[in-house]
Amino acid sequence: MTVVDPGPAAAAFDHEVLFYRGTDDFLAGVLPFVREGLERGEAVVVAESRDRLDLIRGALDGDDASVEFLDMAEIGANPSRIIAVWAAAVELHIGAGRGLRGVGEPAFHGRREAELVECQLHELLLNEAFDDGPAWRLMCPYDEQLLPRAVCRGALRAHPVRSTSLQRLPSAGYTPAGHVTALAERLPRPRKAVLSGGYGPGDVPATRRTVAHWARSCGLTEDQVEALELAASELATNSLRHGGGEGTVAMWTEAGAAVVEFSDAGHLQNPLVGRLQPPVEQEGGRGLFLVNQLCDLVQLRTSAQGTTVRVLTWL
Amino acid sequence: MTSACPLLPKGTAAYRGGVRAHGLVSAVPTAEPADHICWVYADDAHFDAAVRQFLAGGLARGERLLCVGERVIDSVRAEGSPVDGVESLIADGRLEMLTVAEAYAATGRFAPETQRAFYDAATRRAVDDGYRGLRVVADVTPLAEDDASRSHLATWEHVADEFVAHGPGMSALCAYRGDLPADALADAASAHPLVHAAPGVPAFRLFFDQGCLILAGSVDSFDADRLQRLLSASPVEGSLATLDLTFLTFIDGAGCGALARWARDLGARSITLELRGAPHLVRRMWSILSLDTLAPVTFSGVPA
């Protein structure tokens, strides 16, 4: 096994994609990064799928006591939740004067197509979230053998550094502020019949009742129905308060998912809206954060043409 | 504040049992102790029928009747009066009538504490005179129309509800003309367990029962400020305040924020807030939003 210099100590946020082929190559890329962090006394946080967590634990062979392991399938089920996890780690560890490095594989093999699309947006937004903050390193492994090529190409745009187990290079495809374009992209249109209607001032209760009724008719569990009812209330409220005072709700089912989508004429100025924990004293700004935490997958797109929030619940 | 609030199913009809009668109603329910009804009226005949039903229930229960406000007095004195034998009832002390000016302005500046003292004295007098209690029909529309008193009106209604629930035996029907501003109507109606009003008014009701507060209905971003104003005026004493959420049908993040800020304000007074029967989703939101960092609350009871 050839071990390469895993790179310098971070002087700023260092966001690196690690392309790997197979388990051995994965470990050859990740382990030196983890071990170096431990040797330097940095906090090391690893967010991976369970089988990958087991692999790393086994390979560390007892040296893992100070590594925090997170199940990416849980914390990143909806990729819009992941930035808050890293932000909490930054606050906790760097706030305490320690260094921090993370390993995070949001785009693990086996994810649904829509989830992978959101992983790409999440990766772009990581730069926006942490580029102006304190120094730390984040390595994002991508399974080059099993993931669609488009996903790996997207990773090159989202990471300023690309590496393999053998080398570490600047990513020529890196697109600073790439999230602006990604946020403006249109979501694929529904292929099946859609129920839709408009809402305006005073219509929030009726909107959430309509969505809850529809969700029940789709056979969702009561917990899922209540989460969607809350999402409907929060997102319709956002349209009334920030989206021009009115909006449209559309509902449909597609393979494996019940989908509810809210659209209005607003343009959200903060690309990280809903991805960071709102200050507890703050009166507003909770809606999208709650929706991201409670719903299976949330796809937000916003531009001068308007804002769309699509909420998917897996059937 | 202790003692149990029995768990009953959610809904919009008037409930009875361990809890006071509460709900959104289309007619005056059978008279019970501690009735507190907000009656928003548009139709005169319908209003007269409600007054008749409410007062007749009081007479049947052996309560003294008190009519407050010109609209009610006109109704009771009119030909075809909803109450039979008005003059003899007045003569033998079973019925008293006061104009709004007499009942409210006579106590000085309109304030919840002076109002409470006024009705406390009137109720105790009725009980001392041998009645089972005092049944009040008050048209408080003039108070809702006046800017100075309006800001205190919802607070007064909330304080009054505590008095009706736990005091010496008052019941009340508070009448409001339907063409009042929607916000004024919602403010007042929210502080009653029983409400007769247009659909959707009010979204929630906050009322007292057996030592605890009950929040029923729904609270979203557009109601959260109203809820917070009522809660901040709530006459809570002791070291524990209990808010029962069993009858809550919906609450959003802003509504949870209002509850958390109340918990913080209570905490500053060394009072702990117990949330009883909170829906599972409320507990999840509490955790997701880290609302416990504002002030710790105790969750109790089976999640609704």
Instruction: Tell me the major beta sheet of chain A.
Output: 7 strands, mixed
Q: CATH class of the largest domain in chain B, please? A: Alpha Beta
Label the structural class of chain A.
Answer: alpha/beta
Q: Classify the helix fraction of chain A into a percent range.
A: 25-40%
State which percent range the strand residues of chain B make up.
15-25%
The helix-strand sequence of chain B is EEHEHHEHHEHHEHEEEHEEHEHE
Overall average residue pLDDT of chain A:
95
Shape of chain B: elongated
Number of DSSP E strands of chain A: 12
Order of helices and strands of chain A: EHEHEHHEHEHEEHEHHEEHEE
N- and C-termini, Cα separation of chain A? 44 Å
The residue fraction in helices of chain B comes out at 25-40%
In what order do the strands lie side by side in the largest sheet of chain A?
3-2-4-5-1-6-7
The low-confidence runs of chain A, each spanning 5 or more residues with pLDDT under 50, are: none
Query: How many domains comprise the coordinates of chain B?
Result: 2
Question: Hey, roughly how much beta strand do the residues of chain A contain?
Answer: 15-25%
The Rg value of chain A, from CA coordinates, equals 20 Å
* Overall radius of gyration of chain B: 19 Å
The largest β sheet of chain B comes out as: 7 strands, parallel
